[in-house]
Amino acid sequence: MATQALVMVGIRQQVRARQFDCEPSPELSQAEWNSSLYAVQQRARRGPTPEVFYTKHLDNSRLRTEADPARAREIRTFVAAMVVLFVLVMVYVVQHFQSIEAGYRIESQKQQLEELDEQNRQLRLTDAQLNAPLRLDQYARNFGMDAPGPSQLIRPDATPADGAPVLARAVAPERPTGAPQQ
Fold first, then answer.
1. Are residues 39 and 82 in the same domain?
2. Same domain for 85 and 42
3. C-alpha distances in Å from residue 69, one per residue of 12, 82, 175, 182
4. For 65, which DSSP code?
5. What is the CA angle 133-134-135, rounded to 5?
6. Which of 21, 88, 118, 160 is the most exposed place for a label (fewest CB within 10 A)?
7. From the CA atom positions of the chain, what is the Rg in Å?
8. Same domain flag for 81 and 37
9. Same structural domain, 42 and 79
10. Percent of the chain, pLDDT > 90?
11. Cα–Cα distance between 151 and 17 in angstroms, integer?
12. Tally of structural domains, the chain
């Protein structure tokens, strides 16, 4: 160590002497002077011995790691907590999106209800206009129809008089008394 320190001090003194006390010699070019100065500075930084790195080949294939039960329990607890948190967040997200979708569906159905109410109002107005008695009477007169006379009216619930027209009726035939029923 002591020799290394003495060598370093000597190199530093040489570099300072070259840098400050003397000018580059005329026989050396500027590039040569710079390269020699750079080499001296590198040696000063490194020290007197060169740096050598040796590679070590380690064989850790025979080593086994021991299971740490406390660490494994911590990891399982953490994973379980994260799973529960994830499930809770996903439930919240699904409910949130379902509520938004339900809101859109409700608004759509309200709009459809308003449209159907307006359509119903228009249909009732048209029905009232088409079934107005004055309009029907005018329409019938345009086709040459008149109000029926008393002899043209037949009441379905009245008993027919002799010789009066009778409405057609469907009557089931009677079965004989001794015939088997099907």
1. no
2. no
3. 59, 20, 96, 87
4. P
5. 90
6. 21
7. 58
8. no
9. no
10. 34
11. 152
12. 2
Expressed as residue numbers, the domain containing 100 is: 75-144
Beta-carbon count within 10 A of 7 CB: 15
Condensed to tens digits (0 to 9), the pLDDT of residues 72-84 reads 999 999 999 999 9
Amino acid at residue number 67: A
For residues 82 and 137, membership in a common domain is answered with yes
Q: How far apart are CA 9 and CA 13, in angstroms?
A: 6
Contact 177, 164 (CB under 8 A): no
Domain assignment present for 152 = no
Whether the Cβ atoms of residue 4 and residue 49 lie closer than 8 Å to each other: yes
The answer to whether position 100 is within a domain reads yes
Q: Which pLDDT does position 87 carry in this prediction?
A: 98
**How many other C-beta atoms can be found within 10 angstroms of the C-beta atom of residue 36?**
13
CB 131 within 8 A of CB 139: no
**Helix/strand/coil for 57:** coil
Among 98, 117, 97, CA closest to 109: 117
Q: Phi then psi for 104, rounded to 5 degrees?
A: -65, -40
* Position 175 in a domain: no
Give domain status of residue 94, yes or no.
yes
Q: Which amino acid is at 106?
A: I
- Enter the tokens of residue 65: 């790691």
* pLDDT, mean of residues 83-99: 98
